[in-house]
Amino acid sequence: MPRRKANDRTGPVKTRSREGCSECRASRVRCDTKKPSCTRCQERGLQCSTKVVLKWESEFASRGQAFGRAGVWSKSKAAGSPSTPSASGPNAFLLGEQEWCFIPQVEAWNFVNSSTDAFRLPYRVTPTEDDHALVTTRRSRVVSSPYESGSAMVQLAAPLPSLSVLPQFSGSVHGHLFEYYVQRICPRTIASANTPSPLASIIIPFCSTASETVSKAILALGACALSLDNPEYYAVGLRLKSEALRGLRHRLTASGSLVSTSDPEILVVMMLLCLYELVDHCDQRWIVHLKGAKELIRFRRQQAALPAPQQDDAPEQDEVTSFAERFFAFQDIMGRTACGEQPLFGTDYWQHNERRIDHWMGCSPELVSILSDITELSRTRRRLASKSDKDEFSSNAAALNRRLEELVQDVDEDDAALQAIAELKRLAAVLYLHCALNNASPTTPLVVDYVRKILKLVSDMLDAGTYVGLAWPVFVAAVELDSLNDELWKDDDGNVVFGRPLVLRALAAMAEFNILSVARTRAVIVKVWQVRDNVLTLPLGDASDNDWECYVAPFSTAMSLA
């Protein structure tokens, strides 16, 4: 029997009910919407519910289904073509009267997207494609040479030995990776353009007399960093890393514990492999080298403390060993400011009254010492029981604050960029102190003021072409942004500068000029923002936790902020 036309039908037109229960909707059956239970649910003994069911686009995409009305097509068009308003339809006269709004330019940092994993796995931080895109933007072009015009050239304290004197770097591939290490990696590890990086001025001369294991570690680091531009080098880096690890294991097992602790080559290889993991993924793997170096250094210092007759063969602390020890201690302290975990390296690596700025660290040893004291004091906050303990805690916190306020960091020469970075880190330290010790939060006026100061300095330094040494200040300011008051200032054109887009732009710029992975730093910052936005759906620990312990520490394990 032929189907009746629409104008031949009798009776009321049946339309879909928007108030139907979820059981009838799931069965695609019309619901009579009776309360408290519709007729169908009452007859079948079903629970009648009209609650709102959230649907996530990612779930539909994983099942290969259209989300909502996406992909709906009309019979008046060819099959598969999207339906559009007909120019001859009853509303055709409205098309000419419509006013179209200007569509603004949408960039990658305009939105912080949440997926279902943000709710199912609220405390897991995994860098997403958006995070990794920061360090892979250079892959959009084919890099014919890793040393483009304008790249920074490192200045060595001593002349660089020629490749003929360094046979381990001979050959087209090895020579290519070594030059990339010198030309591109070393300059990106130091904020000052007036002083060479210790990775060049200290490690390269040491490499000329060291074993092949050190050379393999240097080449592996060069290949790993170069793979960010050219993925073909990633397999080369893995092979060289494996050879360096094999040489390190052989040296540790063959030399004996006493010889190993006095051998600076082992610490250098551990440091280079640690940098490899920081460039590659910046996950728990770099902590393995940090812990191994800690045990090695601890045993070395124990041997040095023995009576003189038992340590006649112990060498003096050389420049290579001193730099390697400071590298690991600095990585440990800066990373622990975020997560507040137990320290691996103590405060005895820093002079409390040394205010001269270290060119590699971008701040003075005294500032690093204060940061270590703040982190350690924050770890004791939970154990405060008596009033006297709380009074002592407040007194110590006030003393650290006074030290920061009065700290003046000196620089050897007139280096405005280095002086600005040191001041930026001091301001970030003040902000960190108030959040970790004084229970300040993003809505605290003092925090709002310091966040604005820090991000304004960061913006000015990026405009001036300074990109190295900003990771920790940007992180501290970003995680303490007030999500409900994101306006920072107005630029010269009168446009409002917002905090979150500024942070994401800064991270994108830093990723282009740093060898360390910025992807994980971005992932943690975005996670903190998501948790602050979804505060009603996530547990926030016990009542004794302050803002830093609730929103920052749970997501910041194994971060490198040095």
Automatic annotation (TrEMBL):
List UniProt keywords, sorted A-Z.
Answer: Coiled coil, DNA-binding, Nucleus, Transcription, Transcription regulation
Listed GO biological process terms: positive regulation of transcription by RNA polymerase II
- Chain coiled-coil ranges: 390-417
Q: Please list the residue ranges annotated as the Zn(2)-C6 fungal-type domain.
A: 20-50
PANTHER family attached here? Answer: LYSINE BIOSYNTHESIS REGULATORY PROTEIN LYS14, TRANSCRIPTIONAL ACTIVATOR PROTEIN UGA3
Q: Can you cite an annotated GO cellular component? A: nucleus
Query: What residue spans carry the region label Disordered?
Result: 1-20
UniProt xrefs under SMART domains: GAL4
Question: What is the recorded name of this protein?
Answer: Putative Zn(II)2Cys6 transcription factor
Query: Organism source for this protein?
Result: Aspergillus mulundensis
